[in-house]
Write a structure and sequence with these properties.
- There is one protein chain.
- The protein is an all-alpha fold and 334 residues long.
- The chain has one domain.
- It is built from 17 helices and no strands.
- The longest helix has 31 residues.
Length: 334
């Protein structure tokens, strides 16, 4: 008992530091606009030197791993089976095709660029599903690599910047193509990476387009659990080889995926009250911002620069592929 309290107390300085940076990022985002997660990442990088400080190291590691997993698990409170069923088979099929082909493209491009399978899956999954949240969830079940955190943060930066750009550009494309609200919502929700940017872009085209975009996006988010499970299974042997001999083996299905699935089921059954659902959504976002700040403290601008141009090109090509595929499917459907 005493040892547990001492260990918990050791997490406080680093966790408190990450919380302060997360609050600062939230304040700046609300005051000046812009992506909250990106601010948290940059603020964290500015305090990189504290990740090696004995007093703060344990808390930073805790936020970057355990708090991150909690934030991903709580994403399940956003989704219901009724929302997914309301899409219809054609719309759902288009979204599934876009997600799967984008993941496949990530693997193919990673191989062409001399990168690892894990890097291809991480970049493809972040673009295909839900941006930074998906990148963090997938990274949690990938084998630990020497520069794994650096690549993950580079993916987070790229996918957040491109998602923000898409929030501005994609509504203009929808208007230029004279897409009706339902198809405009499909385009916005089926292609933009982060949930917040989907909502922002969708409702600039009207209420119906915004509602459709949000539901389509939540369907993509619901695919996160299945993708993470498949990735965990595909990389299980490689992950276990990279762990110490006496380390406890990680379960095939991480606990945060069980939490995600349980919340989807409870929310679909109407058990979760709206106020509690809203609270879980806020808690999920707060946990992810906290985790990003902690991950930022574990890297530096010099380390990010060493990642090179390949992650940027990878994310850009995957983004353009997904947008082009969904637009082609919309033209075929129309």
């Amino acid at each position: 008992m005493r040892a547990g309290l001492v260990a918990a107390a050791g997490l406080v300085p680093g966790s408190a530091l990450a919380a302060v940076l997360a609050l600062a990022a939230t304040f700046v985002s609300q005051l000046h606009g812009g992506p909250q997660l990106l601010y948290a990442l940059f603020f964290g990088i500015a305090f990189h030197y504290l990740s090696h400080e004995p007093r703060t190291k344990a808390g930073i590691e805790f936020c970057a791993r355990q708090v991150l997993r909690l934030g991903v698990g709580l994403l399940g409170a956003r989704i219901t089976a009724a929302q997914i069923a309301a899409l219809g088979w054609v719309t759902a099929g288009i979204v599934v095709l876009a997600v799967l082909t984008t993941l496949g493209l990530g693997l193919l491009l990673a191989r062409r660029f001399g990168m690892t399978r894990a890097q291809g899956v991480l970049s493809g999954g972040s673009v295909a599903i839900c941006g930074a949240s998906a990148a963090l969830a997938i990274a949690a079940v990938l084998p630990r690599a020497k520069h794994g955190d650096r690549f993950t943060l580079m993916v987070v930066i790229c996918v957040t910047v491109m998602s923000t750009a898409a929030m501005v550009i994609y509504p203009l494309i929808a208007r230029a193509m004279n897409l009706p609200p339902e198809l405009a919502g499909l385009f916005i929700g089926g292609t933009i990476h982060d949930v917040a940017q989907v909502v922002g872009a969708g409702y600039t085209l009207g209420t119906q387009a915004g509602d459709t975009a949000t539901i389509v996006k939540l369907f993509r988010v619901s695919m996160l659990a299945a993708v993470v499970l498949v990735v965990s299974l595909a990389f299980r042997a490689e992950r276990e080889r990279g762990e110490p001999v006496h380390a406890a083996k990680q379960p095939l299905v991480p606990w945060f995926l069980w939490l995600f699935a349980a919340l989807v089921a409870l929310n679909s059954a109407g058990v979760i009250a709206p106020a509690l659902q809203q609270g879980m959504n806020l808690a999920s976002r707060a946990a992810l911002v906290l985790a990003i700040a902690a991950l930022g403290m574990k890297t530096s601008f010099m380390q990010l620069a060493q990642a090179g141009w390949r992650p940027i090109v990878l994310i850009l090509v995957e983004t353009l592929w997904m947008a082009g595929l969904v637009l082609a499917a919309i033209a075929w459907r129309a």
